[in-house]
Phosphotransferase (Cardamine amara subsp. amara), 498 residues
Amino acid sequence: MGKVAVVFAAAAVVAACSVAAVMVGRRMRSRRKWRTVVGILKEFEDACDTPVGRLRQVVDAMAVEMHAGLASEGGSKLKMLLTFVDGLPNGTEKGTFYALHLGGTYFRILRVHLGGQRSYLDVQDVERHPIPSHLMNSTSEVLFNFLAFSLERFIEKEGNESDSQGVRRELAFTFSFPVKHTSIFSGVLIKWTKGFKISEMVGKDIAECLQGALNRRGLDMHVAALVNDTVGALSLGYYHDPDTVIAVIFGTGSNACYLERTDAIIKCQGLLTTSGSMVVNMEWGNFWSSHLPRTSYDIELDAESSNSNDMGFEKMISGLYLGDIVRRVILRMSQGSDIFGPTSSVLSEPYVLRTNSVSAMHEDDTPDLEEVARILKDLGVSDVPLKVRKVVVKICDVVTRRAGRLAAAGIAGILKKIGRDGSGGITSGRSRNEIQMQKRTVVAVEGGLYMNYNMFREYMEEALVEILGEEVSQYVVVKAMEDGSSIGSALLVASLQS
Ligand code: BGC
């Protein structure tokens, strides 16, 4: 071999070695980054773990806090609010009634016609609209004028069809925020949740505000009841099945109410009702316990929210927040590695990832996870390989599994408080042999998260059986109540008139 050839051969070897070195370097760097991502995922998964032992601790804490909230005003983070609802619709109601529901994301208006028998429930003209976002931090006047205007349009559309022509219309106002009631017709706003921020409304009588706006528009409509959405759902549940004693909402926000014995509401000594019981609005979104598996992402979400240090349970289990927890985990991974490409500015926007997108990604059954790719693209993250898309699905799973399982623990906590979990409650020591005596208990459930996110629902129902055991869970029936909070509130107004 000539000298020149040797030099060329040596140069080729050196070039090949440097290419190989670059490739190996790249591979090692990419492995390191992948390891970072896997590490973040593992740490998150561990922090969200909800083995049944931990769920049982949450169950006990919920039952204990319920007792404390009933014992004294401010005795617990659970407000355990009186609703003054001491009787629920039983099917004999008659007439035409209206409901206006201000929820977290939508407002609804509907009319029901009742014929005096359960089977004669005719729900007419349900209108559902997104709440315009500017209303959430406007003024009470703007908000209520808008609601009155929407009601006026609804009535105008009735034409001559309705039976209520010429008669004052009776309206139920389903208001999905915490209210301190003075009667079933009136109550003041305690605080806003779910991103609403009209501060001058706190402390104002909500029914009065709506009635004022209706009067200003000259509408002959009477706000006949102010009802929390959970209480509406309970009313519809009870109307169809009198074994319904608990109602839970899993929507933009989350909450539960249940039928309590008045003598157990110690903070209101001497409270008398003809039925001996009253519906209590727990406002469980504010429940807190050290047993809740809280991660650094939850802490950051809370700190940056408009109501920090508040509604801790709601922020782990409800629709407004699940998407944002997922987004925060993806963002951290993207900042700690380049597997999502350069960090997208869209991904840094709070609440840009909605829970319905989380559900769509989680339930994506295409082989290449095309839905995941599409949603990531909307977040400014394009062309990620399949293995990265799988990581995203896993994050959705971890967040939703934790939410569903904690939601189940919340329900089991109520069952424990009222002695329907097979253990005899937290005060008496009934033995397991008495399980045969267990009463059938129906839990009415409503809200977009529960209705539309199958995996959430499955995790919740599976965990409920795990906590209660096969035997007891046979007596606990979870029933979906579509539009229950609005329809049920109208039924409640009907029952007040009969
Ligand atoms: C509110 C509750 C409401 C729940 C579900 C929470 O943010 O505080 O009053 O029932 O959302 O809509």
Observations:
- The radius of gyration is 27 Å.
